[in-house]
Amino acid sequence: MTVPLLQVEDLNVWFDLEDGRELHAVQGVSLGLDEGERVGLVGESGCGKTTTILAVMGLLPPSASVGGRVVLEGEDILFQGEDSVSPHRWVDIAMVFQGAMNAFNPVKTIGDQIVEPMELHGTASGRLARRQAGELLERVGIPAARARSYPHQFSGGMRQRAAIAMALACKPRILLADEPTTALDVMVQAQILQLLVGLADDFGLALVLVTHDLPVVAQVCERGAVMYAGEIVEAGSTDTLYHDPRHPYTRLLFSATPDLHEESDVVFIPGTPPRLDHELVGCPFAPRCDRVFAPCASLKPRLVPTAPDHSAACHLNDPAMRAAS
Amino acid sequence: MTTNGATPLLEVEDLVTRFSVPRGLVGTLSGRPKLAVKAVDGVTFSLGQGEMLALVGESGSGKTTTAQTILRLVDAESGTIRFQGEDISKASGKTMRALRRHAQLIFQDPYESLDPRFRVRATVEEPLLVHGEGGSSSEREQHIRDALARAGLNPPELFLDRYPHELSGGQRQRVAIAASLVLDPELLVADEPVSMLDVSIRAGILTLLDELRRSGLGILMITHDLSTAAHYADRIAVMYLGRIVEEGPAREVVQNPKHPYTKALISVVPQRDPRAAVKPQILTGETPNPIAIPAGCRFNPRCPIAIPECRATDPELRVPAGARADHRAACIRA
């Protein structure tokens, strides 16, 4: 078996709260990523998906403590904190932040802002860097001459393209994209998704797409991981997630998403996700689950394989557990 | 679905709303020509009692301005708005105030539309106080409880004394809906009522709106989400650059679209099933600037099937060949 390009192992993130307690935002997340692969990380607000990828980037605030390993081609880059992450940040792993298109410096040209990471990380400088910035803009669908434009001269869709170009400035092999299409119109969303898929295909770029939007993952990614209350509750190919979900949350989340071409009823999942500032007992989804049974209240299900390349954290998949109750 | 030829709840005819673009001091002194954005440019539709119409479009299509003009939050330049048969497009002061209690607005963001210092009781009571309605304080209390119950906050006692920060996003939106129901309106305008909410609780709010529609309210829903419109609305009107380009029964518009813009929009909506055979027809560029609306058909520069005549003719909404009588599209090629 070949070593995956990136392997996140048992990642945990705690945030210190002002009152001295801790919030366990990411709880034992493991995730593998191969070259050129497109993986979706799906979940609702507060489930820990953004915190997970910020931890991979080593960009969490000082109030966070991180446990676990982030292994890039066999090397644990979290091991020595900032010292071991920073050589890889932007160079091997880059990120498009949520709302990146509104985070450009308004008084610098787009081109200058794409050149900046190149010079900072020493991958290119001067005329070479400018030429590369122009090429990157062309690749994301913006004429190279527009490098001299300022952010306000771009439309929202163009700024999002420029933000992607900027993330690619140092030729990373992994791109983490946090809700890259959330504030965009559906037609512009389609353009950006097409661009991301094209980049993954052309450059062998591995893509982690973080979103709350299941249909986007279904159409763009080969694999998906569904997060709930800080942990991955189900992971597998997007095809099995839709056609053979093994966690009620995955099934309900699909049923809660209206589909343009199906007339089936849209369900709503009563209740809200649990707070993560105290230790949870049992399955975190149990209070909202429509298939809850005896062990769910007291015993926390572990993420275990249900089929090759498919795993879920639900007692329903354990025949012994079902027989006993 | 207008009730047996009776007067529709709301009739909008050839509505035009224009915003002037500031020229700045230099522009004014140098006599630069005055520019205006035609945000709404000839919109016509009607809405019956017990009906939900979804105005669907991308940002800048004019859907929110249309809603604001109908509620007279901005002034129309021309056109008529009839509410229960009465022309309200020029109504002012007292008449308008009386009308406002019959037509209520639900905002997009329940995190911002509720006053954080108001308990739920005060938020829902405020419309009664503003309009001097609801009688004595104990009668008002009953109205408040009824409105909360109608909005699905049961039992109301559990919520009356809470502050917004003690409520979930879905509960906040229900409080906002309760505040709009307390005056017992006939028309609800819901501007992207679920776009700020998590997917798992959206259906709860949309089902509530559906129940209100069944109970006889007319609902105008503004949304960018075609899937939501297809599931919950009776009819869909697709807007592009200030105009309705297609309008008809919701399922009919989605399954049998006639306008090339609607067709393209439908083709790019991501589907839940990864096996779904999708052929996204991705239009290049973005919606053009409404200061300079293209001549002829406003969609022609991005249209995949445009012919030279499309640059000359501004198409009217009409029933295309082979379509149902209540399905209209503004395209000479449809």
Give me some keywords for this one.
heterodimer; A: 325 residues; alpha/beta; Rossmann fold; eight-stranded mixed beta sheet; four-stranded antiparallel beta sheet; 10 helices; 30% helix; B: 334 residues; seven-stranded mixed beta sheet; 11 strands; 20% strand; globular
Structure description:
The complex is a heterodimer of chains A (325) and B (334). Chain A is of the alpha/beta class and 325 residues long. Helices cover 30% and strands 23% of the residues of chain A. In chain A, the strands form two sheets. In chain A, strands 6-7-8-3-9-10-12-11 form an eight-stranded mixed sheet, with helices on both faces. In chain A, strands 2-1-4-5 form a four-stranded antiparallel sheet, covered by helices on one side. In chain A, strand 4 and strand 5 form a beta hairpin. Chain A is globular and about 70 Å long. Chain B has one domain (3-102, 185-329): Rossmann fold (3-Layer(aba) Sandwich). Chain B has eleven helices and eleven strands. Chain B has a seven-stranded mixed sheet, sandwiched between helices. A four-stranded antiparallel sheet of chain B has the order 2-1-4-5. In chain B, strand 9 (235-240) and strand 10 (243-249) form a beta hairpin. The longest helix of chain B has 16 residues, at 199-214. Chains A and B meet through helix 6, helix 7, helix 8 and helix 9 of A and helix 8, helix 9 and helix 11 of B.
